[in-house]
Amino acid sequence: MAYRGRGRGRGFRGGGGGIGYAKQEPFVYFPDVELPDIKGVTVEEMLVRRSQKLLNYWKASPYYLEATISKKGQNAEIEKVSDRNKVGTTIKRDSLSQILVHKSFPVELTEGSKGWQSQPGRKRVRWNPDSELQKLDIFEKLEQRQAQNGRGEKEKKEGENEDEDEDEENEETEEEPSDDDDYNQNVDFDDDEDDFNADVDGEVVGWVGAFKGKSSSSVTQTKANVNGTHSIVLEING
Amino acid sequence: MATPYGIKFAVHLITSHFGNLVANVCENLLRKGPLTLQQLIRFTELTPLQIKNSLLILIQHNCVQPFSSEQIGAGGNEVKVTQYLVLFDNILHRLRFPKFLEIVSEELDKNCGEILEGLLQHGRLTLEQIYERARDNAVQDAVRESFQKLLNSRFVERCPAPEPFVEPSTIKSSNKRGAKSAKLDEVSETEEQRVLAAAASLDTLRFSILTPSGTEFDEDKKDGDSSSSMGVGEKRKHGAADSDDAFGSNENEVILWRANFEEFTRYLRHKACIENVRARLDVGAATVLKAMLDATRSAEKKVKTENSVSLSMDTIFEEVMKSEAGRSLTLDRVRASLVQLGCSSSGTDDTYSIDLKQIIELAQKEEVESIVLRRYGRDAYRMFRLLSKAGLLQETDKIADMTFVEKKEAPKILGKLWKDEYLHMEVEYFNLLIKFTLSSNMAICDVVDKPRLTLSGMSDLVLMDQNKEIVNKFVVDRNTTFYLWKVNKPILWQHVLDEMYHAALNLSLRVIHELDQKKELLTIPPEKRTGPLEKEFKRLKNAKFFLESSLMKLDDALMLFRHF
Q1: Minimum CA–CA partner of A114 in chain B
Q2: Does domain B262-354 have CATH number 1.10.10.10?
Q3: SS3 of residue B424 by DSSP
Q4: Mind telling me how many Å the CA of A147 is from chain B's nearest CA?
Q5: Percent of chain B topping pLDDT 70
Q6: Could you give the strand order of the β-sheet that contains B78-86, starting from the edge strand earlier in sequence?
Q7: Record's family (chain B) (predicted)?
Q8: Position with higher pLDDT, A190 vs B495
Q9: CB distance B98–A54 less than 8 Å?
Q10: With an 8 Å Cβ cutoff, are A41 and B52 in contact?
Q11: Can you tell me the ipTM of this complex?
């Protein structure tokens, strides 16, 4: 197929007295070339199918790193519970730390990162890439956690993953393990705290948008462990 | 050595498998050589966390090898730093994972294929993870057996050391550019070899499940129960380390396994040789060669081995008889095939070995010649063939004579080939040569540093080769300009390889482009696809299959020029 005529020209480059020097040519993505006879091409069906299968796998795996832009902060809509089950284009990814064997990497790559400290409840290597859920709003996630407390670390790991994926700020500055017992009991809360530490640019994923719509607020979080349940108190400082 | 389009193609592969962030880190490593974490932070402008995760992913998938070395720190003292070396070849191997899977399915069995698929999907796995991944935990024995099969055929190997220490090289490669850039490539290649050598597992351990202490870890023995009770919880008791060692001996050692790309490359190299012989000679020779190579594959030391491992006539015949195709061959026939293959018995003992390097070179030549034929026509093809056979500089008219090309046409065609970097030309030399003066009985040449060309006598121009043998003689006057042409194989091979990477990149991009154009069409469920939509869908599907099959075929040629 010819794609002539797509995107004519790239703007006139006539500056600096060079009018007429640069010839404007249409930009063609795939110029026509003389192709050989298609009968000479043997279709390797198995190879192509295997290749596609591998590609699909990687795209849904934790190995596919995406730079999530925290535009959520600017979106004032609160995600409805019914939205959660909508089949969206975003794929829920598991955490890298669940799959990787941390001792097989240089120390500088794995030190200080929460997920590496201990690997209890490591997820099975085989996961279901078909479970495409939209990324949960953090608020909803906490609700979930409260409601399903005791289901175990699986939930927490998912939450931790989201934090890792979404975090663009210098999380590593807050990754020193705290000596406080409260913090140690629940790994994920430490991560949450990192997220909400708005020392950098005050952008907090999901939260600020949901509450105030301001882009520069600092949010601190305290937590308490009461009878094994978790409750969170938020202070939003304007 | 990574060529310009090689790098682009590698980055494209990483982007489609792991995303832009990882590709950014990868590209920096490809273009700038081994870097430290700090340098990566500076060059990529990504956050440290993103870079760390990217590196973890690249290491996990065997595309990067970390190593530690000493550098002079800020205070003037030696500081230990960790650098990350990108492995260009391993990135390109990702393109041929489907071929590796096919090899294992054919040579071994489906279960082995399943295990390999897991290793390719994840880059590396522990034995425990392999068991977990198997669908039915109850058949752990079967999984173990399949894994052992893979080890025995060397399709799977231990992962290298996570961070070997490498002495800094004595040549300071980082500061020299420009004229020394060729040397830089050389240095970087040897540095890569040193790092890989330092990281590689000991030969004895590479394909062995045994621990260094010699004890074999047997999970069943450990538990005494059936494997189904060997659940996830059991392992947790012994700490985070997924240790495959004998219980209690060395919990810190974690053995990771990965696909052994070297073995797959060797397999494909053999296959290429066999196919070349089949096409060039006959089926009999191909059968004999296949039997010899199958028998000696595990004995080959390196992939690009020049000669196959020697075998005695008896062994060869024995091996030939094992294969179905070989059963009908007689001893005489086998002997004749060996002669066809160009090997005669070496010395007193009746052992034979095949010159594989020669077969590969022939295959490469055929490939390039067919490109020239296709692109530039038959005349160009004949001239090119002449030059590549001759190996020396040849003069235009001479070439035209020997290939029956018109004298007027020859320079044009040769010029075209030269412009596209298929030929090497020396003409400047002769422009200078015009300065020579003919005076009485002496001929003085300005440029005499090239031993090939000297003047002798009055108006004779004599072309000599390196051994001072006269190759050609011309009658000249001061207005004569000569053009000499030559095929410079090493440079040309690199150039052809780069063009192939370019072609591969174009093919990949075209597939993505086609699918992107018809994104909406792909989301329509099959039932709703009617009439023209169904037709369009079929066309799209065909296009994808043809383009990707072409890519797989092109990859055969890529391997021929890069890995064989």
Answers
A1: B49
A2: yes
A3: strand
A4: 26
A5: 76
A6: B35-36, B78-86, B64-72
A7: Belongs to the eukaryotic RPC3/POLR3C RNA polymerase subunit family.
A8: B495
A9: yes
A10: no
A11: 0.80
